[in-house]
Amino acid sequence: MQTVTTGAQRNPGIDLLRGLSIILVVIHHLALRIPLMHTGLAVVFPALLLKALTWDGAKGVKIFFVISGFLITDHTMRRWGSLGGINIFAFSGRRACRILPCLLVLLGVLAALNLLGAPDFLFHHEGQTLPGAIFAALFMHLNLYETRTNYLPPNWDVLWSLSVEELFYLAFPILCLLSGRAPKLIGSRLLVCIFALLALSLPFAEWQLRDASEIWQDEAYGPGISAIAMGVCTALLAHQIPPAMFARLTPWLG
After folding, report:
1. What are the tens digits of pLDDT across the range 212-247?
2. Torsions phi, psi of 39, nearest 5?
3. 101 and 30, same domain (yes or no)
4. Which sign does the torsion angle of CA 46, 49, 54, 55 carry?
5. In the predicted model, what is the mean pLDDT of residues 72-99?
6. Which of these, 60, 157, 69, lies nearest to 106 by C-alpha position?
7. Are 232 and 74 contacting, i.e. CB atoms less than 8 angstroms apart?
8. Is residue 152 within 8 Å of 123, Cβ to Cβ?
9. pTM for this one?
10. What residue intervals traverse the membrane (predicted)?
């Protein structure tokens, strides 16, 4: 097993994408409560732009998913030399250490405020309970929980994207490990084909949701997993093509 020990440097392009996606998500949540069309911005900016900013939060989340897939794949290849050389226990342990401490603190705060009766932290829909919401957040199906019971308070609702992301990363190391057990050429090609098909399935995944509920259209696993797979494919491509050529190629691919 080859281990790469060189530290990864920050990528300014990824930081820029992160910043743009954060702005889109923040504006989206702000506009849901303070409609932009009813503010002084309507005098300065065209209505088409304000409407786009109001409803482009979902695109911001998809950008986060793509970035996540790219970074996880890039770090995995730098650490273990290839996806097939992944240490599944080390990978899963690092993910748990990165996410669980903050998640547990957040859930503790949300649960305390709920029990104290804070108005914006109470559940108002039939079938929603505090144990049910905590269980759904911890076991990667809060999006399904909301689809079944309606939206949770906003401070809980934002955790739906974590359910999509962590489900992908439950399967990711298993697929990588299985590809490493196969003959080298076959395993690597099969892995690339799987992630490429997942990435290309995004239009189909969204089309399939056209008659689904509003919540499931926004929070379904399919589009999110496809977006993460796009990031995986981009990282694989970046490791196969010389940096100078990749820099010239990506604007055309974009």
Report:
1. 999 999 899 999 999 999 999 999 988 887 777 766
2. -115, 175
3. no
4. positive
5. 91
6. 157
7. no
8. yes
9. 0.86
10. 20-49, 98-117, 129-146, 158-178, 190-209, 221-238
- Look at residue 252 and give its three-state secondary structure: helix
Percent of the chain topping pLDDT 70: 91
Supply the range of the domain harboring residue 193.
Answer: 61-253
Q: Which two tokens stand for residue 179?
A: 């590809």
Which amino acid, 147? T
For residue 27, give every residue at least 6 positions away whose Cβ sits within 8 Å of its Cβ, in sequence order, or none. Answer: 36, 53, 54, 56, 57
Work out the burial of residue 103: count CB atoms within 10 Å of its CB; fewer than 13 is exposed, 13-18 middle, 19 or more buried.
middle
Contacts of 227 (CB under 8 A, 6+ apart): 62, 65, 66, 69, 202
Same domain, 24 and 131: no
Is 129 domain-assigned?
yes
pLDDT at residue 186 above 80? no
